[in-house]
Design goal:
- The complex is a heterodimer of chains A (about 525) and B (about 260).
- Chain A is an alpha/beta fold and about 525 residues long.
- Chain A has one domain.
- In chain A, about 50% of the residues are buried.
- Chain B is built from 8 helices and 9 strands.
- With about 260 residues, chain B is of the alpha/beta class.
- Chain B has 2 domains: about 120 residues, Nucleotidyltransferase, domain 5, CATH 3.30.420; about 140 residues, 2-Layer Sandwich (Nucleotidyltransferase, domain 5), CATH 3.30.420.
- The longest helix of chain B has 23 residues.
- Classes of the chains: A alpha/beta (about 525), B alpha/beta (about 260).
- The interface between A and B is medium-sized, with 15 and 15 residues.
Chain lengths: ~525, ~260
């Protein structure tokens, strides 16, 4: 009996070599298989609805923009992150993914319908504000009737997660243009989209920011030249823990408000701003509850799905989209139920891991593989631990002050700026809180940001007796370090240092170089 | 008598060691790797087998373990084990006092901390860049128009060290050519190259948690200039092994094969 309960899922056998296409869908028992299939159909429903809402624009988009076709593989992306999951865990992952797929199709629809490449005078173009991809949208919620678009998110940032092969074309374009090949591939790929004229052209004005690094700042200049619309930079303080920089940070936010008012003629609406902030606060409450459950012996939300979801709603929704509060309410109910029933997220939970530093966009599902192959359950990660400051909506100045603080603690920025304690001490605090015995540490080889801290991490991990596994990766370029190379580092640690046998031997080594 | 084999198919050399059931090394071989790892493994094994009386094929070995980057291509192996584990075990059976290894192979550098029983405590590796590897030294020897053994001894004569700023093989080569062109003493440039690599090895060793009692393995362990530079950087004496350090991976594989074969 125990053999049948604990037998490996042999998930590797479900796939074809190199393309990693599914030979057939995973059998998870009747209920879970039906649920998974139903969710798979819903993903397709969103994609088809997007096409039907604007068929001509969608076809033009597919014809003109290389990145558009990558979204057709979105159902496979969802499959990669839900492989091997069962019961509550499967349901939570799918609900989170729905919060990613549905708004994405809506944004693509909006972009294509208002793209000056395809339409002479698009209706909403002049009511659109372009913003940097790690900008928090609550501020633009204060301008009802205007829409903000995170300029790089849909064309390249998210696409690179859905399809690992898409970035190579844009990276080559940037390099052919004369930018050195050792630049961080994220801004490099984004610049490639601009050089290739693959950004949907719309917008009245743009907001950029000095985050998270110089590469990102340089990339803003490429985008600025392509869109050729008035652009305003918000320069966020670097040493953000200091109270003495907060006044300056608030002034920067005020200057952005003034800029938008001048460019669009729309007055800032404090009520709308507060409404979005309150909705965000509610989401954050749900978020913190999720973390609390993950701190227990019965975490309910492991893998990569929760950081993808958190990243997405934090930046894109800006407290405006009610879908997220609805989703979170459902998810939290499921999580609490699972916790009360002492449900295990996977049969073999050997290690509780924290994933630290920025993950590879081309391999977002690594955490899922860790769980299925080695029984390593990722209970928390750096991307999820971005700002969790509640907005203070008691008055205007306090609201702006908390917004400015949040903006200083967005993705990547929170941990790579403001001193080593924000990334080193914060890690150990989280390791303790989440009772982790392992850290999966991404080593983004084209980023110099963390290089000076390598020795400190290693020494302190040894002192704490924490398994610390470095995983080199190149963020958006799988040609430098492939998914297989990333897995090999973990395989080596698990076999040579820990001497463990895999939970699923069919997943230890496989070739997925041609996979989406 | 039962015999056990370890075959280490490296990126530049393939090595094979055969042990008897008491753990005594009865044969070994080192051959230049072919483009095809299967051929490399077969060549190394056949050369080693020729040195053992009474056996002529892999089938007659009780157990054989493949290791090295081409380990998955060793057709006659009963099992594959990573070269990190094998190097640790190889060093452990040669000298149990040694607690850490800097392994400089043809295409990668590893720092390995060894546990009391010869298993791996921790490791760090650089396999994405040729800097500080055997390939790097080959490129440098080429730039000096010398053979590799000549180049390895050159720095020992140097009274001063000219620092080499570039650790990238390509950049270092052009920097070295510029220095030679400026008429700087060759031995002092060579000392600079050895020091640059030693610093890189130091990082790997520190990363793996190596503190004392360190030895060198891999082909570059035979580079006396590098050994001296590492001793200077680490400020400790590097332990010399009684067995050829290039054979440590194959020896460790053979020892694992012996343990597993006898336990069968």
């Amino acid at each position: 009996m125990s053999f049948w309960v604990n037998k490996p899922k042999n998930l590797g056998n479900l796939h074809k070599d190199k393309t990693w296409l599914l030979k057939h869908r995973e059998w998870r028992g009747l209920r879970d298989t039906m649920y998974d299939y139903y969710r798979w159909l819903i993903t397709w429903e969103h994609i088809i609805a997007m096409t039907l809402k604007a068929p001509v624009s969608t076809v033009k988009g597919l014809w003109n923009y290389r990145w558009m076709a990558s979204y057709l593989s979105a159902p496979a992306w969802v499959d990669r992150h839900t492989e091997g999951l069962r019961g509550t865990h499967l349901r939570i992952a799918h609900l989170h993914f729905n919060g990613l797929v549905k708004p994405t199709t809506d944004i693509i629809n909006y972009l294509l319908k208002n793209d000056k490449h395809f339409h002479k005078n698009p209706k909403m173009s002049d009511k659109t504000i372009l913003v940097d991809e790690i900008f928090s949208s609550e501020l633009t919620a204060g301008f009802p009737g205007l829409h903000d678009i995170h300029v790089s998110t849909i064309p390249i940032f998210l696409t690179s997660m859905v399809d690992q092969l898409i970035t190579q074309h844009y990276l080559d374009i940037t390099e052919s243009y004369g930018v050195p090949a050792d630049v961080c591939p994220l801004p490099s790929a984004e610049a490639g989209v601009a050089i290739n004229d693959d950004y949907p052209l719309l917008g009245k004005c743009a907001l950029t920011c000095n985050m998270p690094c110089d590469g990102s700042v340089i990339n803003s200049s490429f985008i600025d030249r392509r869109f050729n619309i008035p652009t305003h930079p918000i320069n966020v303080p670097l040493r953000y823990n200091g109270e003495d920089v907060q006044e300056y940070a608030v002034e920067e936010v005020k200057s952005a408000i003034k800029f938008i008012e001048e460019q669009t003629g729309v007055k800032f609406d404090w009520d709308a701003f507060f409404t979005a902030m309150n909705r965000y606060n509610k989401q954050l409450e749900y978020e913190l509850q999720k973390w609390d459950i993950n701190k227990t012996d019965y975490p309910q939300m492991t893998g990569a799905t929760f950081w993808l979801y958190r990243l997405y709603y934090f930046h894109i929704s800006g407290g405006m989209n009610k879908l997220y509060t609805k989703t979170d309410k459902k998810v939290n109910k499921l999580m609490l139920k699972g916790y009360e029933k002492k449900e295990m997220v996977s049969k073999e939970m050997r290690h509780r891991a924290i994933v630290w530093s920025c993950p590879a966009n081309y391999y977002t599902s690594l955490a899922n593989w860790l769980e299925n192959c080695w029984g390593i359950n990722v209970v928390m990660d750096m991307e999820t631990m971005i700002s969790y400051i509640m907005y203070d909506t008691t008055d205007k100045e306090r609201a702006l002050a908390t917004y400015a603080k949040t903006l200083q603690r967005t993705t990547m920025r929170k941990h790579t700026k403001g001193g080593y304690q924000n990334v080193v001490d914060e890690l150990w605090r989280i390791v303790d809180e989440f009772n982790a015995d392992m850290v999966i540490m991404y080593d983004q080889i084209s980023c110099k940001g963390m290089d000076g801290l390598v020795g400190i991490f290693d020494d302190q991990a040894r002192e704490r007796n924490i398994h610390f596994i470095w995983v080199p990766q190149d963020l958006m370029d799988p040609r430098t370090i492939s998914r297989r190379d990333m897995r090999e580092n973990i395989n080596k640690y698990m076999t040579t240092v820990l001497g463990e046998e895999p939970v699923d031997p069919t997943l230890v080594d496989f070739d997925d170089t041609m996979a989406w | 008598m039962k015999y056990f084999g370890g075959c280490d198919v490296g990126s530049t050399y393939a090595k094979c060691v055969i042990l008897d059931e008491n753990g005594k090394m009865v044969a070994d071989s080192t051959v230049r790797s072919k483009i095809n790892p299967v051929q490399s493994a077969e060549l190394a094994l056949n050369e080693a087998l020729n040195k053992v009386e009474g056996i002529s094929s892999a089938k007659e070995l009780s157990y054989l373990i493949g290791t090295g980057y081409g380990r998955n291509k060793v057709p006659f192996a009963d099992e594959n084990i990573s070269e990190i584990s094998c190097h640790a075990m190889g060093v452990h059976v040669t000298n149990p006092e040694v607690k850490a290894i800097i392994d400089i192979g043809g295409q990668d550098v590893k720092g390995i901390a060894i546990d009391k029983d010869g298993t791996v405590k921790n490791f760090a590796m650089n396999d994405k860049c040729a800097a500080g590897t055997g390939r790097f030294f080959e490129a440098m020897a080429n730039a000096f128009e010398m053979s590799l053994p000549e180049f390895c001894k050159l720095s020992l004569k140097a009274k001063n060290t000219i620092p080499i700023t570039a650790q990238c093989t390509v950049f270092a080569e052009s920097e070295v050519i510029s220095l030679v062109g400026e008429g700087k003493p060759m031995d002092e440039i060579a000392a600079g190259i050895q020091l640059a690599v030693a610093k890189r090895c130091f990082v790997m060793a520190k990363k793996a948690g190596a503190t004392d009692s360190i030895t060198l393995t891999g082909g570059c362990a035979k580079n006396d200039g590098l050994k001296k530079a590492i001793e200077k950087v680490l400020k400790i004496k590097v332990v010399d092994l009684s067995v050829d350090p290039q054979l440590m991976g194959a020896l460790g594989a053979a020892e694992y094969a012996r343990q597993k074969g006898l336990a069968k």
